[in-house]
Amino acid sequence: MAGLVGLIEKSGGLKGITHALRGYVKTSRSAQSASFFAGILIFFDDYANTLVAGASMKPLTDACGVSREKLAFIVDATAAPIASIVPISSWVGFEISLIQAELDAILQANPDSEIGNTSAFAVFLETIKYRYYCIFLLILIPLLILSGRDFGPMLIAERLTKVYGRADGGPGAALATDGQAIVSHNTPKLDTPPRWWNMAFPIITLIGYIFYLLIWTGQQSGKGGESFIELIELANAYQALLWGTMAAALTSLLFFFIQDKKDGRIIFFNVKGYINKMRRFSNRHVGKCHRRKQVESSEYFGEDGGEEEHAKVLMDYREAMSSFLVGTEKIFGALVVLTLAWATGAIMQAVGLNRFFGEILTNPALDYRMLPTLTFIIAILIAFSTGTSWGTMTIMFPLVLGPSYNASGGDPVIFYGVTAGILAGAVAGDHASPISDTTILASMASECEILQHVKTQAPYALMVCIWSVLVGTIPSGLGTFPNWVSILLGFVVMLLHVVVTFECAINKTGRYDIFTELYLHISGDEFLRKLKEDTVIAFENGEPVSLDNSAKLIEDEETGPVKDHAEISSPDKSESALGYERSSCTPRSSAQEHIVMNDVENWENTAADVEKSHGKGEISQ
Hints:
flat, 2% strand, two-stranded antiparallel ribbon, three-stranded antiparallel beta sheet, 29 helices
């Protein structure tokens, strides 16, 4: 998957989609919305979601003044929460296999059990409405985007980006080992025209291949006559993703090979060019006389014998292989951390963590109506400790599902609630864990510091977990009110949180959210105080604040140094990234946003270009 993303980047597809969207994505709100919908669109796998959405949306969110922490959060929050509840995804087969194993055990012990005779996929569908964490989180993200509000470390990250007009992702952007901004070694050549279809085609073929292979592997496991949904249940998701990704990469290579570039244009099926290339190749290797070579040079290289004027292939095979390897290299560090995370999970099981939690859940003195809540909480703790949602499911299902069925007397609501508690709790703990696979991949794809991503995302995950228990698992277990009321209450609670306890990045008084304000009042933190003062100045002036007086404080607060002028946006783009009126915290109108991204190439200039124009180290407003 990472290699395919590398091919797309080298072909100019990532830059092409940025150019195609720049007429529509002009504000911080629209950039975040585009990232959210990209995550929703790539619903079939959490890994594909994080890698593709993070890499493709990063240039847009940077240009619109969105912090890398916010991008990583959106990408991460639309990965596993979406893939785990969609009936057609790489998660479904694994989840259903675990459920079916427990249903078989229940049926063996209770032949007349109604639940035991239910299909695993039917149980899966019933559990979707009880997965309150996933539902509430997907409700929260659009509310955050539409309101422009945040709280805690995320509010500080957004404020550091918008107040100082950063168009580089802010201080949370990942840095190279030398402390400088990460520079991609896989950028397309200067003569490569950026075209959106060089990203759209590979993604469409990827989705098509994966779905086809899900059905095909399901047919290999079935007995014939299965429905589409049943084939998805029986599918081998690992094989479908592995083969589908490789097939999409090879198909994309062929698609790139049939494109020629010349004078900023793309030429498909350039037959004349192919014939000319064959003639040049033949003349070069067969060995013609010197006069023949002079004629060839005059015909194909111009009368003056200068540069070649014929069209060139969009990406030759050497560039393709190199870009594929560069793409895979980007996640090498993540693979190392993942390997260590899996080892940590194995150690946790070896020391008896799973048995400890199992004894708690199977305690006969426990009220069975609290099983959905306890299952959800313990699944969170295991997933957070081990960093793996699938490992948590593997541990929890054999320990909990059978005993919970017996303790509740086969109550379907409790059974579905416990099953949903395992699935949702595994996602929630995985979402907040610093050693989680999706957490690491979301940070890598968005080029955000991993610890900054964890620090800014954890408060949101904790808040959603708390309300999932208070208005979700407890009322549903006790039968206080119907499930749809729990979902409605979840929406109301998320809305009230955003309106009452969250704050805009730029506001009239520079006020933080209630929790950060309380911390500032108690600690008197100089960094937060200065940032608050600069927020007021930015609001009153309607433009970003110079970093001259605040750079030292930010350098002391963040892990790395403040980036120089080469990594700071220009005044026009800084104001557009700020994007707020003086009288309120609402975004500017479209007429006032005409400056935003008027020329994407401006923020794609290298540090050397800016230093040459403005002087090295100079910081602009």
